């Protein structure tokens, strides 16, 4: 199937993928697959006004009815899973199974949000005054701007949008300029759900295409109370303060530098499998990719030898081919950055295994994943490089392992492999991992949608997806109702007139 046939199968017309100003390249072979039309900055005020109009109508639709739209979206995604997964593979370079997995994640969050639409619960609260009742009500907040990264080109949109829609908020989506086609294919699917739903307001979910300046038009708009932004810490450092400065609510999902502690008691066979998947899956381009391995000195040499052997047989190549486990990096710039970080690690005393160019489709950037034994947690190790580099460091005491673990600026995902209950529980305790996600005997990547997703420190502090992340898309109102014939004041204050 040609690249264009993949796009046509996903419902994109030739007119939509030609004649525009934004060139889209496939990381598979570097070929230009489309030229799409960008949203003009001058059009943004009208887009924002449409979202506000949609909000006025959507906020009064009963939440379970709003959930029906999300249920239909889940049905349409099920029907279009293969076609959308193929566009993810084409545009983000994910292997087939991971492209499909990303769509499955969208289906899962739709199921979750549909149920949630009947569970937007508030509390009832005991009042200190006789004849009074207190309660908490959750109301829709307003339009939500969703800015997404290239590496999860549709799943992150769905985490936000499924929740925002049941919470009563319209969405304006600005996907990565590297992956607008996946977003356009996704909107075709959403439009089918919308047509079946019937009476949703116009402009409920809008797509805007372009680079940072289009994102900034959302970031600076006071009419958009929520900005959910996923991407680099560099981007979050710009977006977060700007949203805060105009009293908006930022939900930031930024870079990670995720680690695994491997204790002497660990099941090493299981650890090796978990390490390989989480370090090289998606060619190391997940925010939750494993980047640091902190291994007890007594087992370090053995574990590194096992990993080097496992890495040697990993199939790198065309992500569409059966059996491929590692596809391309997103572009050449990403490959160049990987090489320069490996060079830097060498200069800091690191020993590099692998990491060179790999065979693949001509025109793409295919690399062998790297394992780098480091003498210390240097600045290079403390930096997130969005490529398959795994730094390995040894430790003697558990306290030392914890200090290394938490000694980075990022705080997304983390894990420990141990059979020692004290170590496992300490890792999960208040004195343990400082990350938003902390696991035992399972790798740091591949989260399920049922839990809240996000991290601390430079990862931005936002939470999306499951648990009570929905509260980030609503405004909380505290209500006091007086059903007595008196007007007592709280705290016993007297104010007789
Ligand atoms: P990026 O920061 O280059 O771009 C992300 C998005 O932000 C794009 O849509 C981009 O156009 C937009 N953007 C950039 N500058 C902006 C600005 N000044 N104002 C508004 N929008 C702006 O990131 P990327 O290379 O696409 O993605 C990789 C990064 O994303 C990695 O650091 C990875 O860890 C992170 N990521 C985090 C999560 C998470 O949930 N924590 C998930 C996926 C990716």
Automatic annotation (TrEMBL):
What the entry lists under InterPro entries is as follows: Ald_DH/histidinol_DH (IPR016161), Ald_DH_C (IPR016163), Ald_DH_CS_GLU (IPR029510), Ald_DH_N (IPR016162), Aldehyde_DH_dom (IPR015590), ALDH7A1-like (IPR044638)
Which residues does the UniProt record annotate as the domain Aldehyde dehydrogenase? 20-478
Question: What are the GO MF terms of this UniProt record?
Answer: aldehyde dehydrogenase (NAD+) activity
Q: Which domain of life is it from?
A: Bacteria
EC category name: oxidoreductase
Q: Which residues form the active site?
A: 253
The UniProt keywords, alphabetically, are: NAD, Oxidoreductase
**What SUPFAM superfamilies does the database record attribute to this sequence?**
ALDH-like (SSF53720)
Q: What is its EC number?
A: 1.2.1.3
Tell me which family the UniProt entry assigns to this protein. Belongs to the aldehyde dehydrogenase family.
Q: How does it assemble?
A: Homotetramer.
User: Which protein are we looking at?
Assistant: aldehyde dehydrogenase (NAD(+))
* Organism expressing this protein natively: Pukyongiella litopenaei
């Amino acid at each position: 199937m040609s690249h264009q046939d993949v796009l046509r199968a996903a419902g994109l017309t030739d007119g939509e993928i030609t004649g525009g100003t934004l060139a889209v390249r496939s990381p598979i072979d570097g070929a230009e697959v489309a030229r799409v039309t960008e949203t003009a900055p001058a059009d943004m005020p009208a887009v924002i006004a449409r979202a506000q109009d949609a909000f006025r109508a959507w906020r009064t639709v009963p939440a379970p009815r709003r959930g029906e739209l999300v249920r239909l979206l889940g049905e349409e995604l099920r029907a279009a899973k293969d076609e959308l997964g193929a566009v993810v593979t084409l545009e983000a370079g994910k292997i087939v199974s991971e492209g499909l997995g990303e769509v499955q994640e969208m289906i899962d969050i739709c199921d979750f949000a549909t149920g949630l639409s009947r569970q937007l619960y508030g509390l009832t609260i005991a009042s200190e005054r006789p004849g009074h009742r207190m309660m908490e009500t959750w109301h829709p907040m307003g339009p939500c701007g969703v800015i997404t990264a290239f590496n999860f080109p549709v799943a992150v949109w769905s985490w936000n949008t499924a929740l925002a829609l049941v919470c009563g908020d319209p969405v304006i989506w600005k996907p990565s300029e590297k992956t607008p086609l996946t977003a356009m294919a996704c909107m075709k699917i959403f439009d089918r759900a919308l047509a079946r739903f019937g009476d949703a307001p116009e402009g409920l979910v809008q797509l805007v295409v372009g680079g940072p300046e289009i994102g900034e038009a959302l970031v600076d708009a006071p009419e958009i109370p929520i900005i959910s932004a996923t991407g680099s810490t560099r981007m979050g450092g710009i977006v977060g303060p700007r949203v805060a400065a105009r009293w908006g609510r930022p939900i930031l999902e930024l870079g990670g530098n995720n680690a695994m502690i491997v204790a002497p008691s660990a099941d090493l066979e299981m650890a090796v499998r978990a390490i390989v998947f989480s370090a090289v899956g998606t060619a190391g381009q997940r925010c939750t990719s494993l980047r640091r391995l902190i291994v007890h000195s007594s087992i370090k040499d053995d574990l590194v030898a096992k990993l080097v052997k496992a890495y040697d047989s990993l199939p790198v190549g065309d992500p569409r081919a059966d059996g491929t486990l590692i596809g391309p990096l997103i572009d050449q710039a990403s490959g160049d950055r990987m090489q320069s970080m490996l060079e830097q690690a060498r200069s800091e005393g690191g020993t590099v295994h692998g990491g060179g160019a790999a065979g693949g489709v001509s025109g793409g950037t295919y690399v062998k994943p790297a394992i780098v034994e480091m003498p210390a947690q240097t600045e290079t190790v403390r930096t997130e490089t969005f490529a398959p580099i795994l730094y390995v460091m040894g430790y003697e005491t558990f306290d030392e392992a914890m200090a290394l673990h938490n000694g980075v600026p990022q705080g997304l995902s983390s894990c420990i492999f141990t059979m020692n209950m004290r170590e496992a529980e300490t890792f999960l305790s208040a004195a343990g991992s400082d990350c938003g996600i902390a696991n035992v005997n399972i790798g740091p990547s591949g989260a399920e949608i049922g839990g809240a997703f996000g991290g601390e420190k430079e990862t931005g502090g936002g939470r999306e997806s499951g648990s009570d992340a929905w509260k980030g898309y609503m405004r909380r109102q505290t209500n006091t109702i007086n059903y007595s014939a008196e007007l007592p004041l709280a705290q016993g204050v007297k104010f007789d007139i």
